[in-house]
Amino acid sequence: MLTQLPAYPLVRMDERRRELEEKGATLFDFGTGDPREPTDSRIRQALIDDIPEVSQYPSAYGTSELREAFCGFMHRRHRVELHPDAEVLPAAGSKEAIFHSPLAFLHPSHERRGVAYGTPGYPVYERGALFAGGEALPIKLRKEEDFLLPVGAVDPKQTRILWINYPHNPTGATATYSYLEEVALFCREHDILLFSDECYNEIYSGVPPPSILEITRERALAFVSLSKRSGMTGYRSAMMAGDTKLIAAMKKLRPSIGVASPGFIQKAATTAWSNDTHVHERNRIFAEKRALFLDFFDRAGLSALPTNASIYIWVEVPKGYGGDDEAYALRLLEEGIVVGPGSSFGIGGKGFFRVALVPELEVCKKAIARWERLKH
Predict the structure, then answer these.
(1) What is the distance between the alpha carbons of residues 333 and 342, in angstroms, rounded to a whole number?
(2) What is 2-38+278-371's CATH number, 3.40.50.300, 1.10.510.10, 3.90.1150.10, 2.40.50.180?
């Protein structure tokens, strides 16, 4: 299977970046989505306080305290009542949960082994499908359709699992209740499992993004993460929630994989899910950075997708580059500015680039001052 997978792209960019770093160049990194804002002190202290004298294996099912804390969050935020024993399950970060989940639901004997997902999008949807013996079914997302995955493009004769992701990585696009209702109805009518990657649901200003669980739990799972919500990317902590039968299948699978979070991580996660104040402060900071960049792109004549959610801004490559997103990213790199070329997110990303709002606000201002020197 490894031989069938394409290598992660952007070899030229990686090589040039290493060269610049070796020369001591100052780089402003808007490439990887790993924000620099500190993790809340209460979360850090909870982890420290729970490190045991004797280390023992953790449970793949998580502590009851953690599951209950997550259920409390879902009720506060989405008005969704979840059963902590039957409808939720922890994960060591959403990436591993997304990657492993097709293993529980795809089998060579199935007539339908297709996994549909949007492109541009998170590469792990494709990789998880292929490693599970499934068929990757990318569906191109288009600017004129607000980067919403068109359900009419999903082939129900092939598709076993449909992934949606809103707020969206890499575009920052958001979905309405009516759109989620349309997707849920389509999946119900065609007996398709609906997996909703909601890792950016808590990064927003204005109208809170909805969860698929507000619409349905029937044959649906939501994947919810603490990485961006609470600044816990390195902790690797997330939750899966939804249909009891799907959760039961995941419970059978996961002890075999060895992905249980350490107890002290679960304690920190319990603290994070139990508190919303730190999330409000993080959103205030991201809103400032988002407004700063959207204003700059408008002044510079660069076409950016308007968004009030996620940590990403999706921008069209200037006309002078003929839609070559890697060439423009390499040009920015010469100025010390690192962005994600759209092509690295699949065939649907060609002609765009992604800006991840990860550096501190003052660093963002310095980067923009340097970027402004470029002629577009």
Answers:
(1) 15
(2) 3.90.1150.10
pLDDT in tens, 153-191: 999 999 999 999 999 999 999 999 999 999 999 999 999
Give residues with Cβ within 8 angstroms of 228, minimum separation 6: 33, 35, 199, 200, 202, 203, 311
Cα(130)–Cα(120) distance, integer angstroms? 18
CB 366 within 8 A of CB 35: no
List, as one string, the DSSP characters of 194-259.
EEEE-TTTT-BSSSPPP-GGGT--TTEEEEEESTTTTT-GGG--EEEEE-HHHHHHHHHHGGGTT-
Q: What is the pLDDT of residues 267-290, one digit of tens each?
A: 999 999 999 999 999 999 999 999
